[in-house]
Design goal:
Elements: E1 6-11, E2 17-22, E3 31-36, E4 40-48, E5 52-60, E6 65-67, E7 85-86, E8 89-90
Antiparallel strand pairs: 1-4, 2-3, 4-5, 5-6, 7-8
């Protein structure tokens, strides 16, 4: 996620990842989803505000998708559970379910 409109997405190897924008009600086009397809290393570029080009390095493993940090972008991982503490906020622990006999 970033400030500014994201356009012109180019993927080095589209057999490893797919990248697509999320279009919101406000139509900001400032959020991308990186969908892993198989294990491997690749990269993609995206144009911001029709003039600035950014390169993202992606490593897809069996357990997670790793994206190298890029200045001006917030990367939020969806395939890992959140940690118990995020910026001073404590999250509720998930409920523990027990089998009923």
């Amino acid at each position: 996620m970033t400030k500014g409109k994201l356009t012109d997405i180019r993927i080095e190897n589209n057999q490893i990842i797919d990248v697509y924008p999320i279009v919101t009600i406000e139509n900001k086009k400032n959020t991308l989803v990186v969908h892993p397809l198989k294990e491997g290393i690749t990269c993609f570029t995206v144009m911001k505000n029709y003039k600035e080009k950014y390169l993202f390095h992606v490593n897809v493993t069996e357990n997670e998708t790793l994206i190298k940090e890029v200045d001006g972008f917030d990367i939020q991982v969806l395939d890992k559970p959140p940690t118990s503490e995020i910026k001073g906020l404590l999250l509720d622990k998930p409920p523990i379910f027990k089998e009923v006999e």
